[in-house]
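re: ur question from yesterday

yeah so i grabbed the chain u mentioned. its 519 aa long if i counted rite. heres the sequnce exactly as i have it in my notes:
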Amino acid sequence: MKRGCALLQLDGSALTCDQVVAVARGGSLVRYTGEALARIDTAARQAAAVAARSPVYGRGTGVGANRTVAIAADDGGHGLRVLRSHAAAAGRPLPAAAVRAMLLVRANQLAQGGSGVAAATAQALVRMLNDDALPTVRSHGSVGTGDLTGLAATALTLIGERPATRPWQPLTAFDGADALAFISSNALTLGRAALAAWDLERLIRAGAVTAGLSFAAVDGNTEAFSEAARRTAPSDGVATVGDWLRGLTAAAPAAARVQDPFGYRAYPQVHGVLVDAWRDLAGSVETLTATAQENPLIVTAARDDDAAAVHHGGFHLAGLALKLDTVRLALAQTTPLLLGRLRTLNDPAYTRLPAFLAAGPAGASGTMILEYVAASAHGALRAAAAPVGLETAVLSHGTEEDASFASLGARQLEDAVAAFRPMLACELLTAARALLMRAPGAPRSAGGPLDEALRRWEERTGPRPDAFDDRDLQDELLAAEEIVGDLADLLPRPTYYGERRYSSDEIAAQGDQLGLITA
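ran it thru and got these structure tokens back, copy pasting raw so excuse formatting
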């Protein structure tokens, strides 16, 4: 991967999903601020001082069910044995972007100064990320109480016991006392959740655009998105989606029906819940990227003698698991409406066009198969929505008698997002075809951003003389998958990333801006 020249300063502050994407996919480089390095160094020194005074889990004891087993003060190999014994994992290797996201999140968490990891180890982690010399991290190994296998594998790669994906100068002065502190984190789960949340947010906006195109193709009734309807919105997300659709359909002609099927009429209420759930998830992920989750947590003080090690359960991601469940369930609620819109697009009673938007002899199939494709993806998405909050595990002689499985929730969100994209592509292809089949001189869309969406579609697929004859739609469907995410740029974001959120008044004000195409 070609590394970019952008530089992200790590100081332990919350990372936005944008920042995670910029480093994991965009090639941005990172470095610690001086203040962050000072915190890390102080915590390392004071962690050693605390361990010299009293037992500290993982430093002076074994781990898991071995927590009561004392480790000799001169046993310098204990930490390495912890890493080696915790690094085995199973399943496919994860994509490089997920691994980079993990390294970034872990490096930023270390900047909080709660781990006691040496500054040299933290700096080596940053160097690994910038050099793109990545560890191999596999998919099975975490249960949502710390990504132990992935981070142990990373540590072994840092010190040269496992190969990196690029030539790498190993860290030679690794302190065994850093071992448990280094792996005591959910950085992999958080990194993957951040990437999936970023992808989902773009598809949420793209979904509003494809729904708008479908609405235009069936001459829908705009009353469902009116100011009067907005006043009934029970949440900011519902209001935001209503504003999007009101702006997208502002130039719509007279409605063909008194009221539309739920796929149009109830779209803000269903899609808006997804916006609310996404916002909660993104905010939680961002907060956790700046949280010292390590157990034990090193609490630094002005004097080394006043520092402490606090044993706690902050690594248990029950809260994140619930938010991951919620956003996947909210996404799964939106897709039956999408399937409903596809049915109306293929129905002459709604489009006043041939059945299945087919030209040629009687019985032509047109876009019929796209309903099947979308239904197949819908099945995969619904399966990925199964709540992980119902899972648990009892491990290590019963010492750890519960698990959040947030790691599984993040993986299922990746799967759900991957299934949502082709569903939107099916809607884009079908709605665009319906609008392009209209009689010469008839309006092809409701104007504004929808015209731009249609222009982008035509530009990508090009004119063809057999546009509506039965033919192989594979290339067009792949093209729709490629460009559907870019339709997000036609609408403003539902919230700002980071601590700054839209107020209700600001969300209302967005409705006046939707005639513009904004990035």
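noticed a couple things. The beta strands are 7-10, 29-32, 90-93, 138-140, 297-299, 308-310. also The radius of gyration is 26 Å.
anyway ttyl
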